[in-house]
Amino acid sequence: MTAPARIPFPVVDEVARHCLQREEPETVHIEVHLPGALEPARLRKAFTEALRRHPRILVREAPGPWYRRRYEWQPTDGPDVEVVSFPPPRPGALRDARTRALAQAPPLTASPPVRMEVVTGEDAPDGGTVLVLTLNHTALDGPACLRVLATAAELYGGRDNAPAAPPARPAEAPREAPDMPSHWTPPARVAAGAPDASPGNGMLVTELPLPHRPKGAPYTVNDQLMVATALTIAHWNQEHGAAPRPLRITMPVDDRPRDTTMPIGNGTRLVEVPFAREELDPAAMPELLRRTALRTRALKSLPRPQLGHGAALLTSPWAPVVCRAALTRALRRAAAPWTSTTLLSNIGRIPYPLDFGEDAGRAHAVWFSAPARMPRGLTVTAASTRGRLHLALRWSRALLGHGDGARLRDLFEHHLHTTEATE
Questions:
Q1: In order of start, what are the domains of the chain with their CATH numbers?
Q2: Whole-angstrom Cα distance, residue 220 to residue 217?
Q3: 184: which DSSP letter?
Q4: Around Cβ 192, how many Cβ atoms within 10 Å?
Q5: How far is the C-alpha of 56 from the C-alpha of 9, rounded, in Å?
Q6: Element (H, E) at 30
Q7: Can the peptide bond before residue 195 be classed as cis, meaning omega within 30 degrees of 0?
Q8: CA neighbours closer than 13 Å in the CB half-sphere of residue 78
Q9: Residue 343's pLDDT band (boundaries 50, 70, 90)?
Q10: Half-sphere exposure (Cβ direction) of 241: Cα atoms closer than 13 Å
């Protein structure tokens, strides 16, 4: 039998692989809350079959000599390890699963680069079940893993988990973003708070009402989240005595289909939304929302490589990977002052029911969190389920502590509420 062809690392995967850090693993955390219980053997079977139906997730990093020109993914026929685990019910089980999701990346040397912990018992809210998934972001992103989980839900519960149609919006021709502040000015950094002594990431999750948006408004909920994020950081920095500076917020854009044809891997491209310091005035909210909407719409419509043209050049095989890895890390350190202030990843409305059948039921809350390594040190991730906003703040412990996260949550809630008062 012929072995499956190896897959060269795409640009995003290779850059992430070059810049791995043990202190701050590049993990994506997904947390799915279900009202009922799941049968362990049945769930393992359904998830394993879902992996086989999306074979691009069944990969491990292929070994190779130091002088190889590319990293390669080696497809496998099935999982190398048990992917689904059931930690014993006990107080703090969900907290511990979240901590592991931030601190322990699934190794790239074992297929697939994803793990799932199933939390039940007293620590699961309302006596239900919480699925805590950890992805190695070098191999895939949150939306891709959610697609695999939707297939597993359908196989487990026997119910349709096809994605809902995306919101209908009128098509518009690409346009130039209005009054775009310069990208050559180093943006503001998130001011340091009271960092923890331990390395790694901290996280706080919260549930909020979806912000009100008048019918026919020229902006989206994503624009409201973008404005709330910018105002939150400007407010935080002012509280901590940082000089006012322009902000830049990285925004992932995902154009992939959500059905079973969705490409699995790292499929988002990154754009940066700038804010001049004088624009961040809550008293001028209607104008701030309008400008933000025009900018995000224009930036989304512009064709651009996933990480920009420079990354594509760095990952071309002109030298052995060890040489290009050293160069990539050096350039990343040199470019740190120009790195965006923070990242806002808005998954939007979860497109799948995530219906696990009669006993376990449909997901009523879904959280994501993105890596928050320095120099950004803070990421904001949002998703909506059943008309509620599920927000995760994740930070580098070298920059912030848990009390800082709570303060940032309160500021975000306040400023998101102000985006509703536009008249």
A1: 9-162+176-418 (3.30.559.30)
A2: 7
A3: S
A4: 14
A5: 12
A6: strand 27-34
A7: no
A8: 7
A9: very high
A10: 2
**From CA 18, how far away is CA 234, in angstroms rounded?**
32
For residue 383, the one-letter residue type is A
Q: Which of 177-186, 228-237, 310-319, 413-422 has the highest mean pLDDT?
A: 228-237
Q: Kindly report, residue by residue over 301-320, the tens digit of the pLDDT.
A: 887 766 666 677 677 788 89
Residues 57/144, Cβ–Cβ less than 8 Å:
yes
Contact at 8 Å (CB) between 393 and 405?
A: yes
Which of 133, 139, 145, 76 has its CA nearest to residue 108? 139
pLDDT tens digits, one per residue of 130-186: 999 999 999 999 999 999 999 999 999 999 999 987 766 655 544 555 667 767 789
Structure tokens at 336: 């740190």
The angle at the Cα of 90, spanning 112 to 200, to the nearest 5 degrees, equals 50
Q: Which residues contact 13 (CB under 8 A, 6 or more apart)?
A: 71, 73, 138, 139, 265, 266
pLDDT, mean of residues 373-397: 96
Sign for the CA dihedral angle at 279, 280, 284, 285 comes to: positive
Return phi, psi of residue 163, to 5°. -70, 145
Query: What is the separation of C-alpha 133 from the centre of its chain, rounded to a whole number of angstroms?
Result: 12
Instruction: Write out the H or E segment, with its range, that includes residue 46.
Output: helix 40-53
Token pair for residue 57? Answer: 């997730």
